[in-house]
Design a protein that fits this description.
about 290 residues, globular, 17 strands, disordered N terminus, 2 domains, nine-stranded mixed sheet, alpha+beta, 4 helices, Jelly Rolls, eight-stranded antiparallel sheet
């Protein structure tokens, strides 16, 4: 009887843990469609879809489908342009637009894989940007310093109280990115502490570096929502990212290390199998 209660607790705990993790997710684009010109939001509002290229159908600006870190991913074959891989569709609701700019804590995660790096100036590859009309919310960039050759991750968060515009030298921190290798990248803002953490992890050997700075959060959407989310570029400058992007996820909370994309929470069905396994082992010991 005690073992049954233990297994029941494990199952309930697993379901609660999975629900808690998913409950904080605003959007998660896995890019596992593998074909087509749109990407669905797999965890969050069904209307928060992404459209590839410059139109509602196939066009020359569409990214390519490729093998991703998990399943499929999107890849640009026009790195000298400033065309986004994907952007929000006209079907986004006002709630979708507002939710993508939480004024409290947030976590933005993705997997990236460079084909090449910029080789002149401080040419910046846009990874992601979001704005409401002319009002910028946040921008993420990847580039190489033109003198030192160090890898740099740039994060910009706009707030009327004070903007955050920081650059993280990952090479100086102990992790220099190389081409054709998957990396996990996250921007994690803790509203209570007033701190922004940038995390980069090499998915080949799990080397992880991070930096934490004092920061304000996003200012949020004001006025009539007019969202422009770009994945793979940024509006108004730089170049589109040259490589692959996979598993872009937004959360309105500080995602703990154990719940990050590279270390996902087991699905409820998995927890059920664990419970059944425990029951089987218990019976064998009797």
């Amino acid at each position: 009887m005690k073992m049954c209660r233990l297994i029941a607790a494990m199952l309930v705990g697993g379901l609660a843990l999975a629900a808690a993790s998913e409950g904080a997710t605003i959007a998660h684009w896995t890019f596992d469609e593998g074909s087509g010109t749109t990407a669905a939001n797999s965890d969050g509002s069904a209307t928060a879809k992404l459209q590839f290229g410059n139109s509602g159908g196939p066009d020359s600006a569409d990214p390519l489908w490729a093998t991703g870190y998990s399943g499929s991913a999107i890849r640009d074959d026009k790195p000298t342009s400033n065309v986004s891989y994907a952007r929000n569709t006209g079907g986004w609701t006002a709630t979708d637009a507002t939710n993508m700019a939480p004024t409290g804590s947030f976590t933005i995660e993705m997997f990236i894989n460079h084909d090449t790096f910029s080789t002149w100036g401080d040419q910046q590859f846009g990874l992601l940007s979001y704005r409401n009309g002319s009002q910028v919310q946040y921008v993420m960039r990847s580039y190489v310093h033109h003198i030192s050759g160090d890898n740099l991750i740039g994060i910009f968060v706009e707030n009327s109280v004070g903007d955050t515009n920081t650059t993280f030298n990952t090479s100086a921190a102990g992790l220099s990115m190389v081409a054709n290798q998957w990396y996990y990248l996250a921007a994690i803002y803790d509203d209570v502490a007033g701190q922004l953490e940038i995390v980069l992890r090499d998915m080949n050997d799990d080397t992880t570096v991070s930096t934490t700075i004092a920061s304000n959060g996003m200012q949020g959407i004001t006025g009539t929502p007019n969202p422009l989310l770009l994945i793979g570029s940024e509006a108004g400058g730089g170049r589109s990212f040259d490589g692959l992007i996979d598993e872009v996820r937004f959360s309105d909370s500080v995602v703990a290390e154990g719940d990050r994309l590279y270390n996902p929470v087991p699905e409820p069905g998995t927890m059920g199998l664990i419970g059944l396994g425990a029951m089987f082992l218990a019976k064998r010991k009797r």
